[in-house]
């Protein structure tokens, strides 16, 4: 039985929801899965695990700085394991920006990261206007207006392609 670690960095919870789905897939393949937040991962011994998956969201055009610090600090151990990385962002709702080769946030991550993951994924996220504080609601609505996305602040708009998530999770579980 392989030991799998899933680490998530999320702002509003969509990245964790995607990780939950992948965790279910891995457990169905009789893998022992531990899932932790990026903050909790600081205290986890990576050498215990056979496989590591990291999922991270974008907010205002950037991954959290702690993400790059973590992967750069642990790149040697990550490289010694079967590994994967995915990013979650609303830009990926556009077909021309929803692959590792075309998504600007994945490309930037790969440029800045000393770790070069074996498997890459890009998933569109979710906009949940009613859940946001005033500033976030205003800024995200403005960004959506510029990029021709949904601007109705009373709505929740989920762009995640769950079939794509399942295919990614299945591929990762079979690594």
Automatic annotation (TrEMBL):
Ranges where the Flavodoxin domain occurs: 5-154
InterPro entries: Flavodoxin_dom, Flavoprotein-like_sf, HemG, Protoporphyrinogen_IX_DH
Pfam families linked: Flavodoxin_5 (PF12724)
Domain of life: Bacteria
Pathway where this protein functions: Porphyrin-containing compound metabolism; protoporphyrin-IX biosynthesis; protoporphyrin-IX from protoporphyrinogen-IX: step 1/1
Signal keyword on record: no
Compartment(s) of residence: Cell membrane
EC number of this enzyme: 1.3.5.3
Keywords recorded for this protein, A-Z: Cell membrane, Flavoprotein, FMN, Membrane, Nucleotide-binding, Oxidoreductase, Porphyrin biosynthesis
Cofactors (names): FMN
Gene3D superfamilies named among the record's database cross-references: 3.40.50.360
Catalytic activity as recorded in UniProt: protoporphyrinogen IX + 3 a menaquinone = protoporphyrin IX + 3 a menaquinol; protoporphyrinogen IX + 3 a ubiquinone = protoporphyrin IX + 3 a ubiquinol; protoporphyrinogen IX + 3 a quinone = protoporphyrin IX + 3 a quinol
Top enzyme category: oxidoreductase
Topology term for the membrane: Peripheral membrane protein
Cofactor note: Binds 1 FMN non-covalently per subunit.
Major localization class: membrane
Family: Belongs to the HemG family.
Role description: Catalyzes the 6-electron oxidation of protoporphyrinogen IX to form protoporphyrin IX; under anaerobic conditions uses menaquinone as an electron acceptor, under aerobic conditions uses ubiquinone as an electron acceptor.
Protein name: Protoporphyrinogen IX dehydrogenase [quinone]
Species annotation: Shewanella algidipiscicola
